Amino acid sequence: MGIKVRKTDAEWKAELTPEEYAVLRKSGTERAFTGEYTDTTAPGTYFCRACGASLFTSNEKFSSHCGWPSFYAPTEADNVILLEDRSFGSVRTEVRCATCDSHLGHVFAGEGYATPTDQRYCINSVALRMEPPAAG
């Protein structure tokens, strides 16, 4: 893994919109079916909106009909950190950016999706910035 991005809370607040800050830095969740990338099928790479680290590509994105963008794997396993999340009375696996430690969403397994990994990385659109492939 490359260089880690570390900023103060004040620096994050100054750089991010209130919604981005709430999700990325305070582990919030955007409302289902409201995110910019929920139904996007265009080719491209998805980067962390906070630090610009590469996280996912459209090749691993699939339609799960859950209300958030879904991917079956990150671009590289070490681009994300997986942590046990026991909030809200359940046990889930939180997904965080390995570069800046921003909250991205959660990953679920064994739900029966026809994907190579049988995993669903359920990621907040507001945590991502998608860029189309370079021309030429």
UniProtKB/TrEMBL annotation:
GO terms for molecular function: metal ion binding; peptide-methionine (R)-S-oxide reductase activity. Residues 9-133 form the MsrB domain. Its cofactor is Zn(2+). Keywords: Metal-binding, Oxidoreductase, Zinc. One of its GO terms (biological process) is response to oxidative stress. It catalyses: L-methionyl-[protein] + [thioredoxin]-disulfide + H2O = L-methionyl-(R)-S-oxide-[protein] + [thioredoxin]-dithiol. It holds the Pfam family SelR. This is peptide-methionine (R)-S-oxide reductase. It comes from Nakamurella antarctica. The gene is msrB.
